[in-house]
Specification:
alpha/beta, Jelly Rolls, 6-stranded antiparallel beta sheet, binds (2S,3S,4S,5R)-3,4,5-trihydroxy-6-oxo-oxane-2-carboxylic acid, TIM Barrel, 3 domains, 18% helix, 10 helices, Immunoglobulin-like
Amino acid sequence: MERTTTLLTNLSSRRAAGQARSLDGTWRGIIDPYDSGYIDIMGERNKRGYYRDFAPRHPADRVEYDFDTSLELEVPGDWNTQHPELHYYEGTVWYRRTFECDADEPEGTRSFLSFGAANHTTRVFLDGEELARHEGGFGPFAVEATGRLASGHHSLVVMVNNRREPDRIPAMRTDWWNFGGITRSVEIITVPTNFLRDAWLTMNADGSVHGGLTTDAPSGPNLRAEEAGLAGMSIRIELSSESGEAREELTVPVLGTAPQFGQLLTTAAADAFARWQPGAPVLHNVSFSLLSPNGDEVDRIDDQVGLRTVRVDGTQIFVNDEPVFLHGIALHGEGPTGGKRAHGDADAKELLQWAVDLGANFVRLSHYQHDEAMVRETDRLGLLAWGELPVYWGIDFGIANVLANGLAQTEELVVRDRSRASLILWSVANETLPGPEREAFLTGLISRVRELDPTRLVTAALLTIPSNDPEVHVTDPLGEFVDVIGINQYLGWYYGDRASIRETNWSSDFNKPIVFTELGAGAKFGNHGNENEIWTEEFQAAVYREQIAMIERQMSADGGHVAGLSPWILKDFRTPMRVLPGIQDGYNRKGLVSEEGERKLAFDVLRDWYQSLSD
Ligand code: GCB
């Protein structure tokens, strides 16, 4: 039987309250390209599989693996950059970490094994027993371990498989490195028996405050309060400004264990709180307390949230009812140096500081859900952000389990970060080809996004293949279902002559804001020459100059359709698709900085323009 995982949010609050025990550090790993640690030669579940983490007890015991003397692997981290033999590896690696519990689990508590992300399909085994399986390489998940963490020694074995498969998301081809492994933190989270699995709060387009809660009880999900043993319980929500001037408190009854959400504060009440603004972020303190019928605090979540509105009107985007031009940059979840999967605060701070140095007010966090540290940092820095699903080239939209996986990844993306003011756009896809199956699939994801978060804008990055035709009119039928039309256009690189970029005009069938989610050109840092020599910094800078001239003419504030841009891309990033020796060497070279953070000329060209926009 395959057990499902659950989604626990607000881990920062759990950490601060001492409810998290980190299992990060050095684990042991076994490379298993044939999945022999799971399946035996008859194709059956291998009863002597690696998940048992068995140590020989007698000299004659035949055990053909030994975690204790196998590879060392750091968690969190991709495996590809840790050992040369794993550089291009796509398949299964078994991770093992042992730990001691010095006491039995306290009465009245529940325990969860929480994973920030593991790419792509994961099976979790505790002390030899399979607890759950999870699909999707970038979303958080947790596995209940209540009753299994008695005092003593424990073995946690995690089978992680990053093989590209036609029915996975992403599927067979990506222009980024298929980093495998446990790429984000692993923790044991201990919570009260009845607890707040999720609690969030954000501002609606009309300036009211919207929020939600999911209470978890051992009796199961989607039960009424009486059935779940939660009758008479309530939740107290307190919102207070840092200075203490504004304060609101309200109490709502616990209806049961299904997610409940709605309006928490009217527009008038919310007006007492200073707004979070791009470039001037203000964060307020919020707490959600689960109260017993006699008013005792049973569980509590603390968070810091910004309040801002976002909406579109015609071809413009408005934040706090002011038109905003998104002058941003796209980035991958790859660390600032070393071509590794990014994780944690230090990577987030360094990467996003480069965006700030560029004068950006916006970041496109492509092409999948990034580490939570990134959106916490965009909240602190006052950078607007775009979150994205890895629905990318070549997804097979007709397979039922692909849709199920897409919906699960949607939930992880939206639910983890619904309280982040910086996040204004959810993107459901990048460069997918129009067709009835695609439209059915993506409108399904869009509906799910809107159900989970009715307050933010929905978008997708569409593929355009313009030629030298000066009029580009976007007709992709997906435009009807999104709020903002993302357009990847590589004028002056893949399509069209550089000389014609300036004259190009953009419009769509939909009278909606257009954001150029990608544009750019490749250049190797330090490679100089003239503007007509490909791969030189001068060539790349020249493409940027022409693009800027074109976009300046069509900004939506002046009646045009273009409401922003996030050129491709902040930093050179690893990809097996880019093989040109001496130039690419396994990196996509469209970065404004090299893979080690050295700035190319185009960085300054874009920064000069972005600074002029903020003046
Ligand atoms: C695209 C893709 C992006 C690629 C980029 C490129 O359109 O969305 O993932 O890396 O082009 O460099 O070709």
